[in-house]
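Q: Got a minute? One more chain.
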Amino acid sequence: MRADICDPDNDFAIERFKSTLKQLGAMTIEKSWGIGVDVLDLRIGKDILTVFSDTWSIDMEGPEHFVQQVLQLFNQQA
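A: Always. Here it is, folded:
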């Protein structure tokens, strides 16, 4: 499942997202780049979450149940 997080210039939402990932114990597995997109693979427990960042958006992709869990915690911090 893929979900939009925010625009890359929304500092408040980016800090909330970072806080959410920290609360979940995210560990960086790999950082990469592909034609204008920064890609960050994170391990949280047994799940892998991929975060994409470019000039238009920051979004994430992973197993549906896990993306829903991240979104729920992210939205609770709003």
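A: The chain has a mean pLDDT of 94.
Q: Perfect, thanks.
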